[in-house]
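quick q for whoever's on today - can somebody do inverse folding on this one?? i tried earlier but teh output was garbage lol. tokens:
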């Protein structure tokens, strides 16, 4: 006779296992394996006790990882055996917080196929309901105020579930079991449509007040909730088709929407938002719609339709697409995303055309979050506000990616990604790294987690600083981090640096100042779990150097402990500081007068038409060194060549001159002759300095000879790639280190990245490029955090 000996196993599962349908999955799995016991959320993990046959327990435990629901991310499963308790069934127990413990928080997730089906099914009770969600999708991070993740600690606390929602919520076999944001038209959040001059009024009044919406007036008389929401979407669609600008309250803040096919609507939005040229993102209803406007590779399609649902920069079929040229002036790429909330799905289907969907803010302010805030701040921009009454806990911009070598590369990391951590190759201290000025993020570390914040924004105003400080407090609370060390950029004027200095002196914490480009390289190493030392190529706009010059074309031998500057582009003055960044022709003048002679003639160059007075001012600044800090910035070299070639002399957004120069390069470069411009490398006290006089003079000659700009652009890009490869090969030969990490905002330039990577590989060097965090300053805080972890260790 077979004797079955029952065993009891206690299992702990770590990772993103809360708010993602993990407990119902465990419940079903326990039934499948005929095991008794319970499952419970704790602050740090999910704890399970199962009792039964040992083989069944092992099968159960293995299935926890292999069969987990789509949004769960398992970090580790531990199992120990104990004396059996004689459980008679399997149950889901209440959550239990534990002091000091924390859990990973799921990012917000795009509407899942099941919810989309219900949304569009006239027979479903959630038909047309813009806040439909389930355990596999919907808001998470943006509604969580504290852990453990239960409804009372979310911004859904104020909504009381109706009996039907409650039944779903309580049924372990339901897709909405313990879905904290669960809601329906009877009990959940509701939409309102408000005109720009009204306060939050009854939607019906607003519709009545609008002359050109007379048709919908009758419909608005319908009284039940469902029809109301349907009619609001209809009215919003009418407004959008009519060229109006709508502020739409989304997941992590307001977005500004308008008809992307209307030049007039887009121009109006640009004028009101004070954003003359920076490209705008477009939302398209379906994959079929996207391929009408853009080229789409299988990898791009996978990324676009992933649960993270980011904006992806796609090759724009400008000749075919009816998306307005003003959406992305002078660019070959369009930032496109699919709808990621039910509200977006409804709006896109109703409007029947692509919509511009851009952050709801004025120029560089943070994205507006609350209704009153939006009505105040976006008043001059939006004609109407499509709002709802579910509060947003965390501001959360859309993430942006581009595809490089068939793999995604982040440009902005926010919705769908933060606050999921980057995993570190070591056990870390509790560190706060404050990041840089532009595209700021911060980073908190503990255990092997680096909690890199969502994109905060450009730290240029009080609003962004407040957003930064509040979000730091939120992360500290959610992940139970009490920093002992604070890392910050060397630049004394960065608001993030000033904040760091303040908290360091107030709380008596350990201060670790980190050089900007060292942080860039460390961030690239850290995301690859590479410890270095590696040859770091940090090419960006500008960052404060250890010698107080503005660096930005750097070759560093770096690891987490420190760096040696082994090479850089030669210094030229930045005439007028910030003025030279906004007006690239000033940089062109600086290169000409510094490298080719103080009286270099401008004849035959696009610079010839410049205001002679300003040219005289620049000359004086250069001659006397007034407000002209020396810089080795690669970004400024791109600016100068762009201005010299007549592509762009003034910019409306960061890096515009360099981006448009890249866009000028021909598409089929393989067939072109591999021509480059000359440059020299000199060795000064062991440091390689890339001399640029010959390069600048060659560009001048080509411009004067009317060589087509696409050729100049291509030759220049090839020259920079050759320059990087040559210096790296030399350093590798000298040091025996042949791993190269590429970082800094200049590597958002696809052409340069592609040319550089392939040349480095051809030279026998291994290349690391960013895949998890942005190569721009959005990745800086991760680098600062890992460096701070090693400060004082060796
Ligand atoms: Zn769903
Ligand atoms: Zn309900
Ligand atoms: Zn930088």
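ok took a stab at it. sequence:
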């Amino acid at each position: 006779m077979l004797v079955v000996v029952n065993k009891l196993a206690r299992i702990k599962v770590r990772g993103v296992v809360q708010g993602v349908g993990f407990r119902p999955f465990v419940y079903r799995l326990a039934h499948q394996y005929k095991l008794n016991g319970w499952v419970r959320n704790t602050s740090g993990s999910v704890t399970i006790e199962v009792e039964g046959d040992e083989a069944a327990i092992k099968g159960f435990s293995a299935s926890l990882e292999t069969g987990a629901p789509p949004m769960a991310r398992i970090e580790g499963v531990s199992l120990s055996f104990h004396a059996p308790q004689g459980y008679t069934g399997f149950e889901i127990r209440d959550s239990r917080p534990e002091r000091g413990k924390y859990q990973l928080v799921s990012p917000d997730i795009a509407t899942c196929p099941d919810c989309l089906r219900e949304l569009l099914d006239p027979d479903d009770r959630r038909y047309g309901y813009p806040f439909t969600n389930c355990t596999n999708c919907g808001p998470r991070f943006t509604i969580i105020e504290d852990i453990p993740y239960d409804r009372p600690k979310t911004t859904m606390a104020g909504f009381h579930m109706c009996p039907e929602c409650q039944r779903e919520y309580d049924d372990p076999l339901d897709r909405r079991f313990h879905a904290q944001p669960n809601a329906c038209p009877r009990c959940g959040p509701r939409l309102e449509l408000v005109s720009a001059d009204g306060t939050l009024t009854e939607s019906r009044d607003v519709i009545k007040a609008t002359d050109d919406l007379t048709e919908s007036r009758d419909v608005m008389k319908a009284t039940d909730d469902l029809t109301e929401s349907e009619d609001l979407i209809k009215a919003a669609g009418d407004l959008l088709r009519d060229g109006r600008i709508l502020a739409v309250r989304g997941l992590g803040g307001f977005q500004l929407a308008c008809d992307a096919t209307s030049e007039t609507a887009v121009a109006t939005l640009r004028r009101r938002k004070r954003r003359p040229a920076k490209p705008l993102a477009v939302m398209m209803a379906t994959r079929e719609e996207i391929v009408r406007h853009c080229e789409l590779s299988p990898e791009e399609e996978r990324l676009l339709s992933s649960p993270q649902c980011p904006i992806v920069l796609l090759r724009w079929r400008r000749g075919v697409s009816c998306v307005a040229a003003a959406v992305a002036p002078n660019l070959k790429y369009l930032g496109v995303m699919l709808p990621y909330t039910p509200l977006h799905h409804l709006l896109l289907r109703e409007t029947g055309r692509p919509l511009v969907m851009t952050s709801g803010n004025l120029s560089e302010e943070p994205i507006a979050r609350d209704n009153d805030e939006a009505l105040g701040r976006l008043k001059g921009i939006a004609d109407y506000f499509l709002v709802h009454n579910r509060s947003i806990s965390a501001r959360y911009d859309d993430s942006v990616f581009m595809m490089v070598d068939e793999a995604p590369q982040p440009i902005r990391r926010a919705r769908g990604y933060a606050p999921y951590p980057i995993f570190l190759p070591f056990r870390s201290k509790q560190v706060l790294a404050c990041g840089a000025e532009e595209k700021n993020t911060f980073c908190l570390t503990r255990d092997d987690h680096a909690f890199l914040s969502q994109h905060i924004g450009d730290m240029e105003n009080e609003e962004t600083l407040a957003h930064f400080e509040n979000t730091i407090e939120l992360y500290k609370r959610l992940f139970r981090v009490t920093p002992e060390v604070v890392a910050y950029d060397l630049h004394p004027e960065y608001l993030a640096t000033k904040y760091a200095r303040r908290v360091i002196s107030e709380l008596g914490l350990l201060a670790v100042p980190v050089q900007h480009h060292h942080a860039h390289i460390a961030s690239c190493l850290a995301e690859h779990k590479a410890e270095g030392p590696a040859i770091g190529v940090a090419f960006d706009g500008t960052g404060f150097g250890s010698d107080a010059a503005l660096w930005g074309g750097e070759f560093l031998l770096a690891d987490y402990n420190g760096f040696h500057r082994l090479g850089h582009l030669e210094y030229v003055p930045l005439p007028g500081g910030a003025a030279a960044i906004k007006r690239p022709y000033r940089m062109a003048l600086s290169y000409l007068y510094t490298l080719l002679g103080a009286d270099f003639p401008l004849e035959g160059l696009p610079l010839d038409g410049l205001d002679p007075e300003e040219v005289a001012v620049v000359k004086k600044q250069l001659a006397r060194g007034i407000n002209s800090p020396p810089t080795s910035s690669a970004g400024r070299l791109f600016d100068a060549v762009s201005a010299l070639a007549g592509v762009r002399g003034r910019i409306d957004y960061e890096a515009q001159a360099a981006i448009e120069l890249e866009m000028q390069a021909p598409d089929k470069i393989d067939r072109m002759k591999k021509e480059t411009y000359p440059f020299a490398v000199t060795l000064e006290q062991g440091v390689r300095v890339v001399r640029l006089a010959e390069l600048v003079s060659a560009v001048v000659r080509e411009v004067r000879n009317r060589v087509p700009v696409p050729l100049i652009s291509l030759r220049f890009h090839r020259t920079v790639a050759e320059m990087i490869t040559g210096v790296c090969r030399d350093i590798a030969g000298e040091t025996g280190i042949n791993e190269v990490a590429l970082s800094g905002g200049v590597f958002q330039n696809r052409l340069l990245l592609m040319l550089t990577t392939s040349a480095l590989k051809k030279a026998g060097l291994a290349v690391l490029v960013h895949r998890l965090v942005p190569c721009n300053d959005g990745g800086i805080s991760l680098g600062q955090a890992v460096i701070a972890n090693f400060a004082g260790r060796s």
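fwiw Residues 161-162, 164-165, 183-184, 186-187 surround zinc ion (ligand 2) (CB under 6 Å). also Residues 199-226 have pLDDT under 50 and may be disordered. so keep that in mind when u check it
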